[in-house]
Amino acid sequence: MERWLNRVAVVTGASSGIGSAIAKDLVNSGLTVIGLARRIERVKELQEKLPAAQRNRLVPLYCDVGSEKSVNEAFDWICQHYDGIDILVNNAGTLQTGQLVDMKIAHIQQVIQTNIMGIVLCTQRAYRSMRERQFDGHIVLINSILGHKLQSAQVGVAPDLNIYPPSKHAVNALTEMYRQEFLGLGTRIKVTSISPGAVDTEIIPDSLRHIANKTILQSEDISQAVLFAIATPPHVQIHELTIKPLGEII
Ligand code: NDP
User: Fold this and answer.
1) Tens-place pLDDT, residues 126-157
2) pTM for this structure?
3) Are 27 and 39 in contact, with CB atoms under 8 Å apart?
4) Taking the chain, what is the end-to-end CA distance rounded to the nearest angstrom?
5) Residue range 193-211: average pLDDT?
6) Contact criterion met (CB below 8 Å) for 65 and 36
7) Ligand 1 proximity of 66 Cβ (cutoff 6 Å)
8) 246 Cβ partners below 8 Å, 6+ apart?
9) Strand partners of residue 36
10) Is the model's pLDDT at 211 over the cut of 80?
11) By CB distance 3.0 to 4.6 Å, which of 65, 66, 74, 148 could disulfide with 113?
12) Which atom of ligand 1 is nearest to 115's Cα?
């Protein structure tokens, strides 16, 4: 991890759950973390809970990752105040319950805009910063088990995850597309997809929480996987890490 000491990581969705844990663990590992979220008051609360010596290395910053304007404003600010972005953790994600066949189109679009376009918008800005400085950085994508496999059908039950699994399947394809682009463009920038099963956070709908019962991961289990992926030597690229709670049935 020494090569990341005093480097700058941007973590999207740092106000809650997995993103908060990643931000905290990266700060603890010696990085400066720009914690992006719409609810920056929650990132400030996280900052206040850090040991005093670490507090100034977590920087809360407003960003709606689904908005090109908001992403550009946030990343412009980061580039003005720091040398550049060395690690980007695309963690922000959203889930709306309902069925594709009759739910509000605006809710479906919001998931696509956050879970897919948020990654595309933030990764463009992080890549630009890495390229300008000829720095071999790392892009991490927080994917999901549901990006690889859908839950099995249950008789008489209409699933309520709608566009969320398709949005995470897109994250799989994005991971490989970025890998090929980074390679083809002659960089040594790494990309890693991390796919958790159920994690005990606010995003989990009651339908999944019920299935998960006690077989559930904690946010720290995922942040430790991020640390593992970024700590690999320059010739090693973790392409995909799938993390299931022991006993998970899907
Ligand atoms: P939470 O609901 O606890 O956190 C979601 C985070 O995403 C919040 O910090 C929220 O910040 C942020 N976010 C949502 N929309 C936006 C937006 N438009 N702009 C900026 N930030 C946004 O859930 P998790 O911590 O569980 O989710 C983190 C990631 O992990 C997601 O990508 C999720 O799909 C994935 N995941 C979660 C699993 C689980 O079981 N919990 C399993 C597999 C994957 P704010 O609202 O303040 O903007």
Assistant:
1) 999 999 999 999 999 999 999 999 988 899 99
2) 0.97
3) no
4) 34
5) 87
6) yes
7) yes
8) 215
9) 12, 61
10) no
11) 66
12) 32
Query: Do you know the residue count of the chain?
Result: 250
Residue of 10, 11, 12, 18 best suited for mutating to test ligand 1, as the one with most atoms within 8 Å of CB: 18
Specify whether 82 is catalytic: no
Q: Report in angstroms the alpha-carbon separations of 248 from 12, 193, 198, 216.
A: 27, 20, 8, 8
Task: Classify residue 112 by burial, with Cβ atoms within 10 Å: 0-12, 13-18, 19+.
Answer: middle
- Cα separation values, 183 from 63, 114, 127, 136, Å: 29, 26, 13, 11
Torsion of CA 247, 232, 178, 203, to 10 degrees: 40
Q: Which residues contact 249 (CB under 8 A, 6 or more apart)?
A: 211, 215
Residue 5 has, within 13 A of its CA and on its CB side, a CA count of 3
Q: Which two tokens stand for residue 160?
A: 């309520």
Distance, CA of 64 to CA of 86 (rounded, Å): 20
In angstroms, what is the span from residue 203 Cα to ligand 1's centroid? 6
What mean pLDDT is reported for the chain?
96
219/245 Cα distance (integer angstroms): 12
CA-derived radius of gyration, the chain: 18
3-state secondary structure of 200: coil
Q: Are 158 and 99 in contact (CB under 8 A)?
A: yes
Report residue 209's pLDDT band, with 50, 70 and 90 as the boundaries: confident
